[in-house]
């Protein structure tokens, strides 16, 4: 509780300081504003610049950005959203852009270049040394969602015939320019990856020991063309800080570090949430940055599909309107059954999708999933229908047979919804469709129709009503 209060106090103080900075900028007290900004770390400074850009515009943002010390400005730039990076680059000189690109980690530089207009990228590459330009072009040509687009060439490589003393000296020489020093990658002759060795193993070993004696040849790696979601799963499974990336000939071409995978996990989670809500969005734009018509395009397909499904439900109700006319009280319970069925199915689907995404559930577990969901649905259906049975008789004042009709229908609807929620995501994965698409929209639409049809059929059977 105390920690939560401390965090709230810190956030409140930070917000107050942002307001103070914005006021200083309005007064054109730029140096005082800069001094307040420099009391924060680079991550917070980037957040402050976002606020300045939003509230005061690009001109004042660039004035403050230029007043930051050079070593801080490049670090701050790497934490800015891509849209803000683009605006700043378009507002500063070519020389300043070259400095920023030179100071950024290689993988951060690639991320920035991928977001910039082609004419600006060309201008930057013109002033880049030939070998580095060739490397940059190689990285830019990898598809956005593969391991190659995430990796960095800034790693420490050792030769297997090095001694520990030579290896440590090499690490001292190049360590500051490497993404990580905790794991070193051992190559033989050319670029072929032979093994890995940890800094810990090197530090505690004798100086004359050969690296080949310490390296681990049983290591985990990914290919440049592996999907980023598979790479994220590998990180989660093994808990690594970095993983080597090899090409088709097993040559080491780069490494992927955990901080880059965090971004991928966020992207994939966002995509799953959107798809579970029926939003078909393949861009990485934020909500407020996306145009209205793009939002419409992303949401319309599933809404149209669900509307058609509800039309079918309407047809079912129209078909049984004579039944409903004989016992008007039945109408009141249609939303109850369809809503409960939709919720039950979505609940099951969410658990199955999560289980598949964390590798807890595999396609071969389909029968076990069905059996478990069946037993769960029997218990849930019995409990919920019993509550409704009592409510329909003692509160609504309807006859016992209507209560029985609703209650038995609810049990059947919950069983169907739970089995559907468990089966659809697995079936989707089996045929190569994203299981998240089978969540709320599809299950709710199918369950609405089935629950209404089940209920009205039960009414004709138990109440002896004519169709």
Could you describe the 3D structure shown?
Strand 2 and strand 3 form a beta hairpin. The chain has about 475 residues and is mainly alpha-helical. Helices cover about 65% and strands about 5% of the residues. The protein starts with a helix and ends in a 5-residue tail after the last helix.
Could you give the topology of this structure?
Layout lengths: L1 H25 L3 H8 L4 H15 L1 H10 L2 H10 L2 H10 L2 H10 L2 H10 L2 H9 L3 H11 L16 E3 L4 H11 L8 E5 L5 E6 H6 L6 H4 L7 E2 L4 H11 L3 E5 L5 E6 H19 L15 H28 L1 H6 L7 H24 L8 H29 L5 H31 L9 H23 L5
Parallel strand pairs: 1-2, 4-5
Antiparallel strand pairs: 2-3, 5-6
Quick synopsis:
This protein is mainly α and 467 residues long. The chain has helices at 2-26, 30-37, 42-56, 58-67, 70-79, 82-91, 94-103, 106-115, 118-126, 130-140, 164-174, 199-204, 211-214, 228-238, 258-276, 292-319, 321-326, 334-357, 366-394, 400-430, 440-462; strands at residues 157-159, 183-187, 193-198, 222-223, 242-246, 252-257. Helix 3 packs across helix 5 (70-79), helix 14 crosses helix 15 (258-276) and helix 18 packs antiparallel against helix 21 (440-462).
């Amino acid at each position: 509780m105390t920690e939560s209060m401390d965090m709230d106090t810190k956030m409140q103080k930070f917000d107050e300081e942002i307001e103070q900075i914005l006021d200083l900028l309005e007064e054109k007290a730029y140096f005082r504003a800069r001094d307040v900004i420099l009391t924060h770390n680079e991550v917070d400074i980037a957040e402050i610049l976002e606020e300045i850009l939003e509230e005061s515009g690009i001109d004042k943002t660039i004035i403050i950005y230029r007043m930051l010390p050079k070593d801080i400005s490049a670090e701050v730039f790497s934490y800015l959203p891509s849209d803000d990076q683009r605006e700043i680059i378009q507002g500063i000189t070519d020389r300043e852009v070259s400095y920023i690109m030179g100071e950024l980690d290689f993988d951060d530089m690639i991320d920035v270049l991928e977001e910039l207009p082609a004419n600006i990228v060309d201008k930057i590459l013109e002033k880049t040394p030939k070998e580095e330009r060739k490397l940059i072009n190689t990285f830019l040509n990898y598809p956005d969602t593969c391991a190659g687009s995430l990796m960095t060439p800034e790693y420490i490589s050792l030769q297997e015939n090095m001694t520990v003393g030579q290896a440590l000296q090499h690490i001292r020489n190049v360590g500051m320019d490497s993404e990580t020093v905790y794991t070193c990658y051992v190559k033989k002759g050319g670029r072929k990856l032979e093994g890995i060795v940890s800094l810990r193993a090197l530090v505690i070993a004798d100086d004359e020991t050969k690296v080949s004696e310490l390296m681990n040849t049983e290591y985990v790696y990914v290919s440049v063309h592996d999907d980023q979601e598979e790479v994220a799963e590998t990180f989660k499974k093994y808990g690594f800080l970095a993983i080597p990336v090899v090409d088709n000939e097993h040559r080491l071409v780069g490494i992927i570090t955990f901080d880059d995978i965090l971004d991928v996990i966020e992207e994939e989670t966002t995509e799953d949430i959107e798809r579970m809500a029926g939003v078909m969005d393949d861009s990485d734009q934020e909500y407020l940055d996306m145009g209205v018509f793009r939002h419409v395009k992303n949401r319309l397909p599933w809404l149209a599909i669900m509307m058609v499904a509800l039309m079918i439900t309407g047809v079912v109700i129209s078909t049984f309107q004579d039944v409903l006319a004989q016992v008007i009280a039945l109408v009141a319970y249609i939303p109850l059954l369809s809503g409960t069925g939709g919720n039950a199915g979505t609940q099951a689907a969410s658990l199955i999708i999560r289980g598949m995404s964390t590798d807890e559930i595999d396609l071969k577990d389909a029968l076990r999933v069905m059996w478990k969901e069946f037993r769960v649905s029997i218990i849930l259906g019995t409990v919920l229908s019993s509550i409704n049975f009592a409510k329909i008789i003692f509160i609504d004042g309807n006859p016992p047979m209507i209560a029985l009709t609703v209650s038995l229908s609810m049990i059947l609807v919950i069983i169907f919804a739970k089995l559907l929620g468990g089966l659809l995501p697995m079936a989707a994965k089996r045929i190569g469709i994203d299981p998240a698409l089978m969540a709320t929209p599809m299950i709710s639409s199918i369950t609405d129709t089935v629950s209404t049809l089940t209920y009205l059929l039960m009414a004709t059977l138990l109440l002896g009503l004519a169709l």
